[in-house]
Write a structure and sequence with these properties.
Layout: H1 15-28, H2 34-54, H3 61-83, H4 93-98, H5 106-133, H6 141-162, H7 169-179, H8 184-200, H9 205-226
Helix pairs in contact: 1-2, 1-3, 2-3, 2-5, 2-6, 3-5, 5-6, 5-8, 5-9, 6-8
Amino acid sequence: MPHLEQFVPPPDTSVEGVLSRMRALDAALPPRDGIAVFNRVYLAVTREVDRHIDTGRFPDARAAVTLDVRFAERYLAAVEAATADLRPPACWRPLFQLRRHPGVRPLQFALAGINAHIGHDLVLAVVDACQSLGCEPADLEDEFDRVGEVLVALEERIREELMPGPDLLQIADPLTHLLGSWSLERAREATWSAARALWALRRLPDVAGEFADRLDAAVGFAGRMLLTPMADWPGGAVVPWP
């Protein structure tokens, strides 16, 4: 059974360091690749968080940087694992497996990535940050909430930019139904509860490892549902991306 410390990736050094790696991915990946779609979204989120840190919007800048970097490192480590033909965490596997499927819409890719990153990676990143800073999850609650506020502010824009237009109403109804079943706000609430639980289990590494494994699998299952190809719906059809 893996221990909690085995879930901690090598730390990056700065927000600019992770931004640089995301920009490199953006330049290297085909624009319609599912990972590229999520990477563009996450790059925008991280830039916004960095701007908020620079302008003093976070009460504790050191804690905000630590949480932000540890959070981003989880995603980047998953990409690196997949690139090296290793198995990324279960929460990321549906997106890697379906990243080129013609029946999956860009909005699905974006939200499936957010689901994996919020539902699993952020839980472990809170624990990572607490271990690095020598603090408790409660000490990071303000930083957690402010990062969540940035995500909520961007989610509506993401949906507007990536939702099919009126000419694609043939698939809009099932897509709306599918994506309406997932809520960023509910995901954030569940993430905070899971992070506190995992922190409380830190002195029971076998139990903590099992908890993290189950969380990973559950988030991966939700991600697979979010990536249901539209052609799999009754009356659905594969529509080329615009």
